[in-house]
Write a structure and sequence with these properties.
Distance between the termini of chain A: 59 Å
Shape of chain B: elongated
Structural class of chain B: alpha+beta
Helix content of chain A: over 70%
Oligomer: heterodimer
Largest sheet of chain B: 4 strands, antiparallel
Number of domains of chain A: 2
Number of strands of chain A: 0
Order of helices and strands of chain B: HEEHHHEHHHHEHHH
Structural class of chain A: mainly alpha
Radius of gyration of chain B: 26 Å
Amino acid sequence: MKQEKFESQYLARWDQFERGMALTPKQRRTLKTDGSKTAKAIDAAFAWPLEQLPQRYREICHHLALARDRHYSSTLVERLERLVLMGHQALYGAQEISGGVGRFLRGGLPRLVRAHSGYVVASTLLFFGPLIACIIAIQYFPDFAYLIVSPDQMADVQQMYAPGNPRLGIQRDASNDFLMFGFYVANNVRIDFQCFAGGLLFGVGAIFFLLFNGLSIGAIAGHLTHVGYIETFWGFVAGHSAFELTGIVLSGAAGLMLGMALVAPGRQTRFAAVKSRMPAIIGVVYGAALLTFLAAFIEAFWSASRVPPVQVKYAVGVALWVVTLAYFIFVGRGNDVAGEQAIGRKKMGQTARGPAINATEVSEVRQVGQVGQVSRATNAP
Amino acid sequence: MPRLINHVLKSLPLLDTLRTVPIPEGIELSLKVAGPMPRARAWGFDLLIRMVILLALGLILGALGKVGVGLMALIGFFLEWAYPVLFEVFRQGQTPGKRACDLRVLHEDGTPVQWRASVARNLIRAVDFLPVCYGFGLIAMLMNRDFKRLGDLAAGTIVVHIDTSRASKRMPVAPPLAPNAAPQMALTLTEQRAVIDFAERRATWSTERANELAAYASAALPVVNSNNEPVDTENANAANRLVQLANFLVGRR
């Protein structure tokens, strides 16, 4: 068939397809809720019902294959390629349903953290190890602090927590609370993200940031304890310490996961390993960012205040630590397996990325694989 | 030495920014991956937009005193980290800068980018940016054939050019050849396609340049016009005759 005839035969179909595909994904999403008024209105603009999408898309794919095979002109092939890409994105690019923020917080996040507890423990040791060691060391060798933090900086910090100050931390009045909130969010979350992204340098960046932050915080805490600013300093940090330090540990753990995927990718290329572990890693980063955000909120509006007595501050601090640890240790237990399976199945069905494979099929595949291995083993000399 | 270089060059695959993605329908999509320059331009646009927003807000929020400064820090933070993610997820892979440069972020399989991949590629920006001015990102881009920076490698995304030229290139209609004025020689499919492509791009050249190009195909050009009269091959317009031939090849009679 000559190109001219081919074009004149199908041009109307292509134009229709393109008009329908030009709808925004939002309009297309409303189409899914069938029966509603909006869906009908958009259907009219479509000029063809959405149920025809797969059929029409395959038709275009067929035309593209023909056009390429018959060496029709580049313009025609490019137009068909554009149409195929549109259809491909509409059909396979459905928004993934993550199960919602609520479900993630009610079980997904703590389960995720427990599933990668090795990295979390490693990150905790890398961060709290130097921190605690530093605090203890400085009680016996006070000058040790100046190896880590310069004397000028230390003087600034010391002045912030002087017992006579009306407010703690960076000197300010109440209207500054919001200023400090913005400052803490921007700064602390950025540190978290760098800690995580540093994992891409084969984990070295993550380890460095964990050690570095552990040492600096330890040096400052040790020094202020040594000079006797116990109530002002520990009272200040007690409230937000649970969220902030856990946030750092989690972002460090995410960085270590990233680094480990690069160092020991298993039977995958390094970047394939990173890619396949990315969903879990990003989940942990979400948790870290959330905790750090909360910490900044507490730090700005609660920690700096000298109104509540220091005992109350300690009590709140301890309570928040208990809550944080209990959350990561106990929440989402029991329904672990059922919950993950439900999420997994839902996702499979809704993203239409691939056929939903059920558990029995997987086990069959595994058995076949094992049989293959066994027979290979018996055949071996 | 030149021979050796020639040999090495010939053994390498052709340089090409077309990336083909096989899809379940049994055909391949071709995506035009974008290199560092257009992407830097898009990033520059985005930077400019963010700067303008911050400056404008600075003028307004400055009046609020310290609360305003805190808000600024907060907004600055979200502009830095959330701006690319939100635009990429809700605007089909396009930040305003990318839209201005006709770029788009896609998953490697050609589907629109979503939360997870977008968050991953934009957080790893922190490494791409090191040591200065996207140094690592640039090195990574030059080391793989899809111009992926580290964030793209980790998230499994590519940045592609999108074709927005709405005006379809239509072949000029020339007087059709006479029924007996078939091409002077049998053309292979590739050659036929080259002739048709020439005709479709005819409008983008000056007449002189088009004639110069068409002269290379003189062996294939028709020697009789639409009225079946012999053409004066010395003086006749080679480009027009080639367009005539293209019209014949696509089946216009």
